[in-house]
Fold these 3 entries.
Entry 1:
Amino acid sequence: MTLTTHPPDAGETAPAPRRKGTLHRRRLVGNLSAAAIFLTPALTLIIVLRLIPVIQAVNDATHTSLPGSTLPPSFVGLDNFTALFSSHAFWSSVQQTLIFNVIVNPLQIVLALALAVLLTQNLPATGIWRTLIFLPAAVPMTGSAVVWGIALRPDGPVNAALTGVGIHQQPFLTGQGQVVASLILIASWIGVGYWMIFLIAGLNDIPTVYYEAAAIDGAGPLRRFWSVTLPLLRRPLLFVLVADTVSNFVLFAPMQILTDGGPQGKSNFLMYDIFHNSFELADPHTAAAELLVLLALMIVIVAVQFRLLRSVEES
C-alpha cells in the first residue's frame, strides 16, 4: 500500500505566521500604550515641576531689572554670577551651609541607625516607641519650628530647667556660637524618626540565617553588627544619606521662622539667602543665580554619593 502525502497548500498555511505577527504587534502596541498611560502623569509632573522651573531660573539668572520696574528685564549674560562670586556674603552663606550639612547629616544617620537597631530587638512596647519617635516627622515643619522656638527662647522651659540647676540662661537662637547647634537639634528632631523608618525596613530585610551562622561561629553582638548588619544595610544607608543630604540643603522653615538668617549671618544658609534676595530684596535675578549654584552643589554631592553606591555594589 502506498501512502501519499500532499504538500501543504500555500493558501492554507500562509495566514498562520501573519496571525502570529499581527498578534505580536497588537501586544506590543498594547504594552506601549499602557506604559504611556502610566508614565504620562509622572513625565508631566517632572516637566512642570522640575524642567520648566530650571529653565525659568536660567532665564532669570541671565537677566536683570530694577526692583518694581515695569520694563522688561535686560540680558546680562553671566554678570549675576560674577557679582555673586565676588560677594563675601554669598561665600559666607555657602560656608555656613556646608558646615551645617557636614555636621547634621552624619549625626542624623547615626542616631536613626542606632534607634532602628534598638527598635528591632523585640523590646517591650516597640510599636509605641516607633510611633513616638516618628511623630515629629508627621508634624508640619513649621509647627515643629514654632514649638522649638518657644522651648529655646530666653524665658522658655529649657532655660528655666537650666536655671533650676544653676546654669545661666543660654542664647540658643540669638548667640553666634549656639544658633547652628540649635538648628541642628531642631532638624534632627524632625528628621531622625523619618529616616529611622527606612533603616528599620532595611534591617527587617536582612535574612536571619546570616545572624544564626555568625552566632554559631561565636560572633558577639558588635561583631555581628559590623560583619553582618552594616554590609547588608549599605544600600538603605546610602539612600538615606542621599535623601537626607538633599533635605538638609533645602531646609528653610526653621531659619525663616526662628532666626531670620541671624545672628550676624550665622544661620543665613543658601536656601534662606535665596528667599531673602528674591522676596525681601526684590532681586529675583540674583536669587535665581544663587539657586543654580545651590542646584549644582547638590548635584555634585549627590553624584559622589551615587558613585559611592555603585562602588559598594561592584564590591
Note: DSSP finds 14 helices and two strands in the chain.
Entry 2:
Amino acid sequence: MIFSIAASSLKSRKSSVILTLLSLLVSISLLLSVEHIRKEAKDSFGRTVSGVDLIVGARTGQLNLLLYSVFRIGNATNNIDWATYERIHKDKQVKWAIPISLGDSHRGYRVMGTSTDYFSHFRYGNKQALELRAGEPNIGLTKTVLGAEVAQKLGYKVGDKITIAHGVGSVSFSNHDEAPFVVTGILKATGTPVDQTVHVSLESLELVHFSAPKIAAILAAPDSPAAIEQLQPKSITAFLLGLNSKFATFGVQRSINNYRVEPLLAILPGVALSELWQMLGTVENLLRFISLLILISSLFGLTTMLLASMRERHKEIAVLRAIGAGPELLFLLIQTEAVLISLCATLMALVLVWLALHFSSAWLSEHYGLFISSNVWNSDSLLIAGIVIVATFVVACIPAIGAYRRGLHSGLNQ
C-alpha cells in the first residue's frame, strides 16, 4: 500500500520529480561511465602487450625501457649490439625474439624497424594476433606496413608512397627522400601503440641512412652479396623475448642482467605495466572524486525537492495522520518516494550507459582506438547502484524526520 501512496504522491508533483530524476540520471550515468571506462582502460592498458616473457634493452630504468619499447614514448639510453641480440636469440631457452629499432618518424608517427617475426609472434589483448585490414604483411626492402591510426589520419592506402625522416618530431629537416617506402599493408585497429606505428624492416632502416649513390647502387642489385652485407643491422634499440618455458623466465632474466659483454636490462612486462599504472593512480582517483561530487550535489538536490514539497503537503500529511497513519508510516512514505526516484534514475542510467557504449563502441575503436566493452551489467555497477540507494536513504532522512515530527494538529488548523 505504501508504494501505491508514494507513487500517487510523486505523480501529483510531476514537474519537480522529473527535474530531480533527470539531475540524478545525469550524475549516476557520469559516475557509472567514469568507473566503467576507468576499469576498461586499466584492462586495455594491461593488454598492450601479451605473451611476451621479457623485454630487453640497454641498461636504464624499468619504466623507461617499457615506455620506449612498447609505448614508443621517449628514447633509449643506448643501443644493443646486433651480435648480442643474435647470441641471446640462439639461447636454447628462447622460443622467439622480435628486434625493435627506433629513431625515425613519419609526420609525427614513430617508425619501427623489425623483422617478419613481429607479425608472427606479437600479441596484444587476450593473446590476439595482429590482423591486416588491407594488403599483406610485407616489410621487404623499402616496403612498409602501417598501423590503423597512421593510415586513417594521414589518408594512406595500399600502394601509396611515403618518406620517413630522421628524428621523432612531426617536422624534420632531414628527410630520407632517396628511398621512399611503398605501403604494402594496413593493420586493423588494436587500441594499442601498434596503431600509431609505421613498420619497416631493419634492413630498410640501414638503407635510408646511406648516401644517395650508395642507396641507388643497393636498390639496383638488392640481392647481391655486397648489398646484403651492407644492409646487415649493426645495432637495435630493444627486443622482445618469448621463452620455451615460463619457469625459465627468472633464470633468463638474471642471465641477461648479468651479461658481461655489454650492460643490458631485462624486465617482466606485467610488473612494469603495473608499476606504470600505479603512477597514473592520481588521475584515476581525481576522476572518481569529481563523479562523487556530482552525485552528492544531485542527492542534495533530491533532498531539497522533498523538503520544498513538504510545505505543500501539510494538509496531505495531516489527513494521513487523521485517518490513522503514525509518524513511522510518514517517515517510510518519504523514504519510499526518495528511493523510488533514485531507483528509477539508477536503472535508467544503466540502460543509458549500456546503449551509449553499445552503439558507439565501433566508432570509438575505429576513430580513437578505444576498445570499451558495453557490458555495464557487472558486479561493480551493481555495487555503485547499491551505494546510490543507500546514500539516497541517508540524505532523505532530513525531510523524513521532519514529516515524522509533524504533529497531528499541524495542517488541520490551516
Note: The CA atoms of residues 283 and 318 lie 51 Å apart.
Entry 3:
Amino acid sequence: MKHIDQNKLNQKMKTRLVVNKFYKGLFFLATMFGIAVLAILIYRILSQGIGYLSLDFLMNFPSRRPEDSGISAALVGSLMLMVVVIPVSVLLGVGTAIYLEQYAAKNRFTNFIQTNIQNLAGVPSIVFGLLGLTIFVRYMSLGDSLLAGGLTMSLLILPIIVVASQEAIRSVPNSLSEASFGMGATKWQTIRRIVLPAAIPGIITGSILALSRAIGETAPLIIIGAATFAPFYPQSLLDQFTAMPIQIFGWVAKPQAEFQYVAAAGIIVLLIILLLMNSIAVFIRNKFQKRY
C-alpha cells in the first residue's frame, strides 16, 4: 500500500474547503441579488399603485383622465380570453401527450416531433403572435377578435402543457400499467382508470402554470391588434377586446405621469391573479401528489 503523505492530504483538504466556501458564498450572493431586485420592484409597484387601487378602479372602464380610469374591461377581457384558452390548450396538450407517451411508436420520427415540441416551448412569444396574425387574423378572417386572441395564446402555451403532461405521465410506474393489462384491461381502460388519475396532479399543475404565462403575456396580443383603449365589454367571441397586460401597456405609454401610477395599480391586480393561480397549482401538487 502506497504511503499517504498526511501534509499533502491536509493541504488538499484545505484547498477543497476554501473552494467550497467560495462557491457557497457566490451562490448566496446570486440568490440575494435576485431577491433584492424583486423586493425593489415590488416596493416600487406597491408604493406607486396602492393609492389608486380601489373598488372604483376595479369597476370603471378606462378613461382619458387618470383619476377615472379603471381596469374593468381588461379584467373581463382576460377572463374571457381564458374561456377560449383553457379548453383549447388543455384538451390538445393533454391529448398530444397521451398519444406520444402511450400510443406512438418509439422511433426517429417520434423523437423528432418531441424534440420540436420542446424547442417550441422556448420560442419567443412574439413569434407565436406573428403566427396567430397570419393564420387566425388574416387567413381565417377572425380579425382582432377575442377568438383570434384566445387561439393565439393557446398556441403559445400548448408546447408547455404537452411537455408538462408528458413528464407527469412518465412519472407513473410501468408496474401499474402492467398490473392493469394483467387483469385484462384494454389500453384505453388502463389510460383512463390508472395512468390519468395518477398523472392528473402533475398535468393540472403544469397546465395552471402555463395558463399563468398566457394571462400575463403582452407581445402576441399586440401583434394581433388587441385594443389598448376599450371602454366596453366584449359581447361575443368575435368582438374586439382588451386584456390586462395590454391595458397596462397602454397606460405606461401615455405621457401623463399620473397614468404611471394607474399602471402600477393594474400591475398589482395582475400580480394578485398570478399569485392566486400559482397558489392553486402548488396546493393541487401538494394535495394529490403520490409517492411510488
Note: The two ends are 45 Å apart (CA to CA).
